[in-house]
Amino acid sequence: AQSVTQPDIHITVSEGASLELRCNYSYGATPYLFWYVQSPGQGLQLLLKYFSGDTLVQGIKGFEAEFKRSQSSFNLRKPSVHWSDAAEYFCAVGAGGTSYGKLTFGQGTILTVHP
Amino acid sequence: DTGVSQDPRHKITKRGQNVTFRCDPISEHNRLYWYRQTLGQGPEFLTYFQNEAQLEKSRLLSDRFSAERPKGSFSTLEIQRTEQGDSAMYLCASSPLAGDIPGTDTQYFGPGTRLTVL
User: Fold this and answer.
1) Residue B9, CB half-sphere, CA atoms under 13 Å: how many?
2) What DSSP letter does each residue of A15-73 carry, written as one string?
3) B48-87, pLDDT tens digit by residue?
4) CA of B20 to nearest chain A CA: how many angstroms apart?
5) Cβ A102–B56 below 8 Å, yes or no?
6) Nearest-neighbour CA in chain B from A5: distance (Å)
7) Average pLDDT, whole number, for chain A?
8) Residues B37 and B45 sit within 8 Å (Cβ to Cβ)
């Protein structure tokens, strides 16, 4: 069964600083990996996804993530954080085979941005 | 495209009562998913439909839970004899049929229904 670990429950950064949110996954086959963002009162919004090809993927709002198979990681990065990026971020792995479509989420990382 | 909508947004009920939630997916999305999210946790998969067929159910979905998507459009999730442990945010998502690679389609989430069982 697949699983996702987000080691950091809460991260605080200053506005303009760089950001890296960690995600480690466990999955037997080639993983389909996703990062979602959840703001209070809002639904989860997809930032980016990876399923094949270039291991560095670009997403919306200036985010990017790098898939590293050797480390079973899919860390999310942003070079300069804006106050509006404060939210909760979820990494997820998608299943293949007959369970395709089912997402397994990590427990999330809450991002606080200081002015 | 109005996005995924869920009704109600909040529900407070007493233990033992039945509740029903509705999800309206994005028009023409074939797949519809239900997840449950408790405080401090990520969403957990409950079940999903492709058109009107329910293709997979999680073991989290006890006999008290039932989901339907009768005409392949909106879906309902019913919880019978609610328990305090059912208190959570219930999220619905929809996606179009995948392109070349099943499982890579983007799921679009609704705002959720927050259930509180007293």
Assistant:
1) 7
2) TTS-EEE--EEE-SSPPEEEEEEE-TTS--EEEEEESSS-SEEE-GGG-EEEEEGGGTE
3) 998 999 988 888 888 999 999 998 899 999 999 999 999 9
4) 20
5) yes
6) 10
7) 92
8) no
Asked whether B112 and B98 are in contact (CB, 8 A), the reply is no
Q: Does B27 touch chain A (CB under 8 A)?
A: no
C-alpha–C-alpha distance, residues A105 and A52, integer Å: 20
A96 — pLDDT class (breaks 50, 70, 90)? low
Residue type, A34: F
Residues of A in contact with B46 (CB under 8 A): none
Our CA-based measurement puts residue A95 at a distance from the nearest CA of chain B, in whole angstroms, of: 6
* Residue A84 CB partners (closer than 8 Å, separation 6+): none
A64 burial level (CB within 10 Å; 0-12, 13-18, 19+): middle
**pLDDT tens digit string along A60-80?**
999 999 999 999 999 999 999
Say if CB A18 and CB A82 are below 8 A apart.
Answer: no
Helix or strand holding residue A111 (H, E): strand A109-114
Chain A CB contacts of B40 under 8 Å are 107-108
Residue B31: closest C-alpha in chain A = A101
Hey, which bits of B10-59 come out as E strands?
A: 10-13, 19-24, 31-37, 44-50, 53-57
